[in-house]
Sequence to fold (301 residues):
Amino acid sequence: MTHGSLFSGIGGFDLAAEWAGWQNVFHCEWNEFGQKVLKYYWPQAESFTDITKTNFSKYEKKIDVLTGGFPCQPYSTAGKRRGKNDERHLWPEMLRAIREIRPRWIVGENVFGLINWSEGLVFHEVQTDLEAAGYEVQPFLLPAAAVNAPHRRDRVWFIAHAVSECYGSDKFSSIQSKNGKVKSKRPQAFYNDTRSNGIAGNVTDAKSKRLQKSKKIGKLEGNRFEQSNQGNDWQRFPTESPLCTRNDGFSYKLDSITFSKWRNETIKAAGNAIVPQVALQIFKSINEYESFNLGTEETEH
Fold:
């Protein structure tokens, strides 16, 4: 599976993609600190900076999963909540990238405040835009506590899957039934497995057959992340002052570059980052859906 990330930050989605066994093809991040982190850990991936000045057409139908935590500041309860009047309202740019890339899957993320800003205007707009672009979309409210993190950190996740044969990778879009017609797959099994009234419970529950079958995540090259078994050993990340950035799911070695020039950037980056362990659960479900889907096609043939 190929993965590209927008608004990449310090690589939360990219790290989860690596755990899931995917290839990180490109990332896009304007912040200098984030760029340095991304280029250090994923030097083989193409690096873009300003999304507003980037044309992604070169990756049309070459990316299986496109992710992006589009800027949350316009909707966050911690800010002025200027919404679409905020210059950081960049969902339209992410939508443009989606139309240029035409990935098979899209995973977007934002703060809980997106749901009630202007009576959910942008929350519903994101879903409507994706549906108009040829995707089925399901929003979820997934907190960091769902993967046993010692803090709640509610976030809205948009998971979208291409339903039009003109979208997705060449391999997927060329799948045909016996009568030669292109088949459009609805990811209902994925949605049923992931959600519970739109709110995730503990997605690491031992009763989950899906997770029981999941392979353990080994140590990554260069001790990038010291933990094993899906990176859920939260004892290594005690709840401390936010300055310590120990409870966000990132390895200390990944996000705690503390020499003076970057100290403030480190704190800001940790605050803006997604929790990669949550993204990993979504990615695992995508992997299993893909495996099931391809297995079904092989049986039909």
